[in-house]
Amino acid sequence: MKKVMITAGVALMLAACGGNEKKYDATGTFEATETTVFAEQSGALLTFDVNEGDNIEAAHEVGLIDTTQTWLKIQQLDATKAVYQSQKPDTERQIAATRQQLAKARQDEQRYRELVADGAAPSKMLDDASSQVKVLQKQLEAQISAYKTQISTLNSQITTANVQVSQLRDQLRKCHIVTPTKGTVLEKYVERGEFVSVGKPLFKMADTENMYLRAYVTSAQLQNIQLGQQVKVFADYGDNQRKEYEGTISWISSRSEFTPKTILTDDERADLVYAIKVAVKNDGFVKIGMYGEVGLSEE
User: Fold this and answer.
1) What is the residue-averaged pLDDT of the chain?
2) Residue 118 CB coordination number (10 Å)
C-alpha cells in the first residue's frame, strides 16, 4: 500500500512539472508600424473625416484645409503672366521701317558707286551713301539687340511666375489631407473647423494587419536564430488564454542592451540581451501592447 502511494506521488510531481514546462523561449509585446499625419499647410479644416478605429486605405483623402488664399494667388499670377506676354514686342514689325531704310540706302550706295565709276558723280556722294548704310546697319543691330533683351527679360519674368504658380499648386495639393499608408486610426488630435498650422499633428494611424512581436533573446539563443526563420508566436490574453500564430524573424538587433525589467528571457541571469522583431499576420485579435511569447525551437 505504501509503495502504491509513493508511486502515485511521483506521478503527480511529474505531471506538475510537465504542466509548468514553458512552451516559449522569449516574451515581449506586440507592436505595429505607426505613422503620424501632420498638416502640411496652415488654415481652417473645412472637412475632416477621421475617427478613432477607422480602417483607411492608402492614398485616401480624409480632409481639406482652406485653399481660398492659395487659389487667389494662382489667379493673380496667371493674370501677371498674361501682362508679361502682352508686353513682348513684335520684333519684325518694330524693325521693319529700319530695314526698309537700310535697303533704300544700299540701293543709293550702289547707284552712286556706278556713277562714280563712270565719272558722273563725285566720290564724296559715294562716301556719304556708304556712311548712311553703316549708320542704318548699326541702328538695326542695336534695335534687334534691345528687343532681344526685352523679350529675354519678359521670358525670365514669365518663367519666375510659372515657378511661383507651381509652388502654389504644390501648396494647393498639400491642403488635401491624404493617408500615406493603409492602417487603423489610433488617435485623433483635431476636429473639423479648427485652425491648423504647418507641422501640427492631425491623427496617428498604424498598420494593424502586419504586426510584430518585439522580444529579447540572450547571446546563447542568438546563435540559433537567423533572419527569415519561421517561429511560433503566442498571443497572451491572460488567464492562460493563448492563441498561436506563425511568425517570421524580420529583424535582429546588432547591438546588445541591458535586460529590460519588464522582459523575461529564458536565462534571467543574463544582463545583456538582443532585441528581435517577429513579423506576424494579424487576424484582428492581436492588439498593440498585448503580451506575447515566441518559441524558437522547431517543435
Assistant:
1) 88
2) 8
- Concatenated DSSP letters for 186-231? EEE---TT-EE-TT-EEEEEE--SEEEEEEEE-HHHHTT--TT-EE
CA 151/CA 196 separation, integer angstroms: 43
pLDDT value, residue 6:
33
| pLDDT beyond 80 at 291 | yes
Pick left, alpha or beta for residue 276 (phi over 0 → left; psi -120 to 50 → alpha; otherwise beta). Answer: beta
CA nearest neighbour of 185 among 198, 163, 204:
204
| Contact partners, residue 22, CB within 8 Å, separation at least 6 | 266
Q: Smallest Cα–Cα separation from 205: which of 57, 64, 63? A: 57
pLDDT score of 149? 95
With residue 21 as reference, give the H or E element that holds it.
none
| Contact call for residues 210 and 282 (beta carbons, < 8 A) | yes
Percent of the chain as helix, strand, coil, to the nearest 5? 40, 30, 30
CA angle at 99 for the pair 94 and 103, rounded to the nearest 5°: 165
The cell for 220 is 546563447
pLDDT of residue 2 exceeding 70: no
Percent of the chain with pLDDT over 70: 88
Instruction: Over range 157-169, report the average pLDDT.
Output: 97
